[in-house]
Design brief:
56% of the residues lie in helices and 8% in strands. It is of the alpha/beta class. Helix 1 crosses helix 3. It is globular and about 60 Å long.
Length: 337
């Protein structure tokens, strides 16, 4: 073991710092030992996974977005945390005394660690949990619901740009007679966009998910969800490829960066469609602000990558009034009045 650190008697700042040291060194034996020592000292599964592992992972995300960590370092740290979650989960014993819940990540969402944390905390609270993992297509999820008949679905979405897909998944679950508890920052600050896409409730943490499963919030959240306001978001998504190709021609990034650039443009179009879907231009503004910060941290600056992409979107989507309004607001760096 290469990074042995003293373990606090319970979760707190010292435990988080010790755990971050393990992640910094990608030392999974030390990280697992630290987590299990916390359990032995009386901490709960939620204490360890929510107050230590999840907090540390948020710090890792900040280090990456600020350009202080590489993708490789972030991936190595995340792998360590995945091993820790598995080790902590293995400590949960006994037969589930409550109902059955299915947990999945929205299609296209590959960040599954937070969802795994929720799965283990909910399982420790006495529920039978089936974790389906990252990027689950809605049709496959619904087929599984019909086969197994769970009491609820816990749906994770980390990126707001995936909200349209989240809405389609929630609609399919409701139509199958299964209510959905949403989780993750993809549903907006304080979950403000969860109701707009038909979720029965939103939880900020794994503890919230376990608590919400014990409530009666599911009444009225099965069957067809309320109709979305307009379908311009769908028209925007149909032009996604056109926008990407136009932006590639307009910016002409180096060949080695073309794929990454195209993916970034696609995510921006997804965020625009999601903003229209939930009726909140702040969603797109937050996305472009985040993109600008990442570019600045890597020395790329805002020009021309972001402003040129916004201009390309406006050109291709000129016939879509709400899309143009949202794009103008994002280009100006403020939400419209």
């Amino acid at each position: 073991m290469t990074t042995a650190s003293p373990v606090a008697a319970g979760p707190g700042a010292a435990a988080v710092e010790a755990y971050l040291a393990c992640l910094d060194a990608a030392d999974h034996p030390a990280a697992v030992e630290l987590a299990l020592d916390l359990l032995d000292a009386g901490a709960s599964v939620a204490d360890v996974l929510v107050d230590v592992v999840a907090v540390a992972q948020r710090e890792i995300g900040l280090r990456w977005s600020a350009g202080r960590w590489s993708v490789a370092q972030e991936h190595a740290a995340t792998h360590v945390s995945e091993l820790v979650v598995a080790a902590v989960g293995a400590r949960t014993t006994g037969r589930p005394a409550r109902g059955h819940v299915v947990l999945a990540c929205v299609e296209g969402e590959w960040h599954a660690l937070a969802a795994r944390i929720v799965a283990e905390v909910v399982r420790a609270a006495g529920w039978r949990v089936t974790f389906l993992g990252a990027s689950v297509p809605a049709r496959h999820l619904v087929s599984y619901l019909h086969q197994t008949g769970p009491d609820a679905v816990l749906l994770s979405c980390v990126q707001p740009s995936r909200l349209v897909r989240a809405g389609r998944t929630i609609e399919a679950c409701r139509s199958a007679g299964v209510p959905v508890v949403a989780g993750g920052p993809g549903f907006g600050p304080d979950g403000r966009w969860a109701a707009a896409v038909g979720a029965a409730a939103w939880g900020a943490s794994a503890r919230d998910a376990a608590r919400l499963l014990e409530t009666d919030l599911f009444a009225g959240h099965t069957g067809p969800p309320p109709a979305a306001g307009g379908d311009e978001y769908a028209a925007v998504l149909r032009r996604r490829r056109d926008v990407v190709q136009f932006a590639l021609r307009a910016v002409a990034p180096p060949e080695a960066e073309a794929d990454q650039f195209a993916a970034a443009v696609g995510h921006l179009v997804d965020a625009l469609a999601a903003a229209i879907r939930v009726g909140d231009p702040q969603l797109l503004l937050d996305h472009t602000t985040w993109q600008a910060g990442v570019l600045a941290a890597r020395g790329a600056g805002r020009e021309p990558l972001l402003d040129a992409v916004l201009a390309a979107c406006g050109t291709v989507l000129a016939d879509h009034p709400r899309a143009c309004e949202h794009l103008r607001a994002a280009a100006q760096g403020r939400a419209p009045c």
